Amino acid sequence: MGIITALYGGRTRRAGTATQLAAGLTVMSGGGEAASLSRYAGVPFLVVNTASQCGFTRQYDALEELYQRYKERGLVVLGFPSNDFAGQEPGTDAQISEFCRINHGVTFPLFAKGPVTGPSKQPLFRWLTEGGPTDLRGEVRWNFEKFLVGRDGKLAGRWRPWVSPLSRSIRAAVERELG
Asked: pTM, whole model, 2 decimals?
C-alpha cells in the first residue's frame, strides 16, 4: 500500500503500514507524574513537540483551534515541550503551562518538558521516530513537528514544523482517523 506524500513535507500512511504503539508506554505529566498513553487507546491523537520562544510558537493557536474543532469527535492534541533546539523552551513546566494558557488559550494536555531527539529522547519520541513506517522515521528536526497516531495505535502521519496544524493535509488525515 505505501506512503502518500502530502503538501509541505507532510506524510501519511495507508492502512497496515505501521507498528502499534506499545500499550505500556508512559510519559510524564506537566505535574511530574507518570501517565500511561493507554488512556488514549481507541482515539486518534496528535503529538507535537513545542517551544514557547520559537518562530513557530504561534502554532499553539492553530493547535488549540484544531483541538476545539475535533475534540468532541475524539481527537486529542498532546503537547510535549522541549528545549532541544536553540534553547527555545527554557521555562519550567509550570511556566510553560501558564504561558500557553494565558497567551494562546491552550486547553489541550501539556506534558513535562523533555528531550525529543538524541540518545536520551523520551520513549514516546523514540517510538514515533524509530518505530513507524520507514518513510516516517527519522529524528525530530525542529520544534513543532507533528505526529498523528490513529485509533488503531499506529503512526498515521508526520508533518514538519512549517506545516500548519490547520493545513488541508493534517485535517484530511485527522478526518480519516476519526472516520
From this structure: 0.91
